[in-house]
Design goal:
It is globular and about 45 Å long. The longest helix has 26 residues, at about 10-35. Helix 1 (about 10-35) packs across helix 2 and helix 2 (about 40-60) packs across helix 4 (about 85-95). It has about 150 residues and is mostly helical. The relative contact order is 0.18. It has helices at about 10-35, 40-60, 65-70, 85-95, 110-130, 135-140, and strands at about 70-75, 140-145. The model has no long low-confidence stretch (mean pLDDT about 90). The protein is built from six helices and two strands.
Length: about 150
């Protein structure tokens, strides 16, 4: 029998994302102060975000601090806790729509437009589907739910 889930609401997911962005603003500002605004800080910032999301989602919390404050958690489709690799994969797939912003092949306006459209396609299912899974959740097999499934 498959587990029953109460899917996280749209607003809870948005507010959790805002909270996580605020929590990560401090280390990113410190990186810019220490390293300057060059390309190295982009890599360091990406590593910081990746570590944050991977560590917390795969931890006993099953949630980033923002998600935890909102009372929502990440589970695998069958209710299990994500392991480190699954949490890492979820984050990598989550950031895929941002890749056009980091290319020098596309003109800046084209990259921004492509990013916008990819983001809409990537995250709109959260707003319009019953299980509120974005493309990243669907591809990796995760769900964001109220309360832990385990």
């Amino acid at each position: 029998m498959s587990p029953r889930f109460t899917y996280a609401g749209r607003l809870e997911r948005i507010f959790a994302n805002i909270l996580d962005t605020l929590f990560l603003a401090v280390p990113n500002l410190l990186l810019v102060q220490l390293m300057g605004p060059e390309g190295v800080v982009l890599i360091a910032g990406f590593a910081c975000y990746m570590a944050y999301h991977t560590y917390f989602v795969a931890s006993a919390w099953q949630a980033t601090p923002g998600k935890r404050l909102m009372g929502i958690y990440v589970t695998m489709a069958d209710g299990r806790k994500p392991n480190q690799m699954q949490a890492f994969e979820r984050y990598i797939v989550y950031v895929l729509p941002t890749l056009p912003l980091y290319t020098s092949v596309l003109p800046e306006q084209a990259a921004q437009t492509l990013f916008m459209w990819l983001s809409i396609v990537w995250f709109a299912p959260i707003l319009f589907t019953d299980d509120r899974r974005g493309v990243h959740d669907t591809l990796v097999g995760t769900r964001v739910v109220v309360g832990k499934a385990e």
